[in-house]
Each structure stands twice: as structure tokens, then as C-alpha cells.
Amino acid sequence: MKRAAKAVVLLALLTSSACKSGKPLPLIGRDIPARSPERIIERIVNNSERMKVPYYSAKATIDLRLPTGNRNFKALIRSVTDSAAWISVIPALGIEAARLVITEDSVKLLNRIDDQYFLGDTTATLEKFKIQPDLDLLQDALLGLPIGLEPNEKYRSDRENGQYVLTSKEKRRFVRAAEDISPSDTLARDRDMGERRLERTLRKAEEVEAVVFRYWLEPDSMLVTRVQIADLVRDQVAEIDYLERGGSDQYHMPTKVSITLTEPGRQATAVLELSRIVLEGPLQMNFSIPEKFVPMP
How far, CA to CA in Å, does 281 sit from each of 141, 194, 286, 294? Predict the structure, then answer.
């Protein structure tokens, strides 16, 4: 499955489940020196290796904004790197409404409101919910890592509003189209790309992976502040903004994250505020199906 398709699923995962400490990431307007893509990627990889902790747990407050209305709820999140993620959804009354466990190749879901459950591999999950969870991408988002970055692939580096920007080196016409669809200060909200130009681009893109990844980085720490994935064939854009991070004692983990998915006629946003982040283990990920529960239809 393409990296973009995996990344887009983050919104569905976190809004079906899903900290408030730390300081807002600074808005930078100063000039910064040019840096080669190789130099930037080297710093990113060093940060990622340091931040790739084995255990992660947190409490989350989620503000979900959908075309059908807004919702607010809380969740408990536990994650063991390269093993599993466990999410317990708790609405306003404080009683668990749902529980989700994601592994590399399976999904388990309890719907306590309707006394139903789902057990399946990633293929069955895709058929059932039209999404295919990806554990690595979910865990990278929680840790504030550059989702989908492939260090051995080719990127170009730019400077924009006092930050470095890495862009995947797809064919130039696709990069231009992605920038037109999603300019730096908006997320595909006011598309000004002409219909005929878009149609020509997409016709040429049908036989290639017309996916453009963009990463914004704070120039001193080289921590990622934003990740944007534009899938030009499917006309989808996913954006993850790391709005706030904790201090060095928490490895600069995100404490406030905004995830937005835009596609034709629909936009959904989830804002997560993460608190009580603990980076120690082991962690329990209990999951048992009550006898009265039935499979989801």
C-alpha cells in the first residue's frame, strides 16, 4: 500500500480513539542559512533515533471536527514500539465506550455501546471500515517523528517563513501541483488550480505514484513542526501539525497535535492534547471480549 494511503489512515485511527503541557512551537520569521537535503535528513535521523522510545503512554483530550458536527472526548493511549498500540475511548460520563488494539497485522475493536466486537487482519479491516491501519505511522505521529520519511530517497530542501522544508523529489509537475493544491498557509481549503490543469496532471499521474511528502522543520532543533502528504491521484491531502512539544525531559514529545484530512467534499480535523506522558514500561494492553458481545455486522 502506498505511503500516502497509510498516512491518511492516521486521522481515522486517532479520531476513532483519540497533551496539555509544554510550550507552543515558536513562529519564526528570521533568515536562516541554506542547508542541503542530506544535511537536514542527517539531523532528522539523529533526532528520530533519540526519540524512538520503546514505551509510551498518555492521556488525551480530543476535539473532533466533522462535516456532521463537533465532538469532544477523552482517551487513554498506550504504545509499545513495533509491537502494538492500545486505545481506550472515554466519553463525558467517564465510562469506557470503545477499546482498540492495533498490531503490525491485526486490529481488535470493542464497541461497548452496542455490545459488538471486531477481530481481523489489516485486509479485513480495510474491507470493513474502508481504512487500513498502520502501526508504524500511528506511533510516529505520537512521538512527533517525520511520518513517512524515507532517508534513502531523494528530497529537495527549501526555506519558508523561517523554517526548512523538505519535499519528496517526485516529478516536478506533481510537486508544483501539490503546492498549488495545498499552499503553505492553507490546507487545500481554497484551491485555485484550474480544472483543466488538474485533469492533465492527474491523467499523467495515473500510472505513477503521484504522492508528494513535505516536512517543515524548526531550524535550530530540526524537530518536525508539520507533515503534509498530497495524493494527487486520489485528490486527498493529510496534514499533521505538531503544535506544542514538551521539554527535554520528555524527549520533546508532542503535547498538542492537529490532524486534518481533506478530500473532495469533506474535511475532518482532530486536535489532540496529550498529558501525563510516560515513557516507561512494561505496559498492559488488556483486551477481552465479554460473553454477551456479538460480531459487528
Answer: 19, 52, 15, 33
Q: Has this prediction a pTM greater than 0.70?
A: yes
What are the tens digits of pLDDT across the range 125-141?
989 887 777 898 889 99
Separation between Cα atoms, residue 177 and residue 212, nearest integer Å: 9
Three cell numbers at 279? 515513557
- Are 51 and 145 contacting, i.e. CB atoms less than 8 angstroms apart? yes
Maximal CA-CA distance, the chain: 63
Per-residue pLDDT tens over the stretch 20-30 = 334 444 444 56
* Mean pLDDT estimate for the chain: 82
For the chain, list the domains and their CATH numbers.
Answer: 3-275 (2.50.20.10)
Q: How many CB atoms lie within 10 A of CB 164?
A: 24
Residue 283 backbone dihedrals phi, psi, to 5 degrees: -120, 140
Q: Compute CA 278 distance to the chain's CA centroid, rounded to the nearest angstrom.
A: 20
Cα–Cα distance, 142 to 100 (Å, whole number): 16
3-state SS track over the chain: CCHHHHHHHHHHHHHHHCCCCCEECCCCCCCCCCCCHHHHHHHHHHHHHHHCCCEEEEEEEEEEEECCEEEEEEEEEEEECCCEEEEEEECCCCCCCEEEEEECCEEEEEECCCCEEEEEEHHHHHHHHCCCCCHHHHHHHHHCCCCCCCCCCCEEEEEECCEEEEEECCCHHHHHHHHHHCCCCCCCCCCCCCHHHHHHHHHHHCCCCCEEEEEEECCCCCCEEEEEEEECCCCEEEEEEEEEECCHHHCCCEEEEEEEEEECCEEEEEEEEEEEEECCCCCCCCCCCCCCCEECC
- Helix 135-143 and helix 3-17, axial crossing angle in degrees, nearest 10: 70
Nearest in space to 246 (alpha carbons), one of 223, 262, 228 = 223
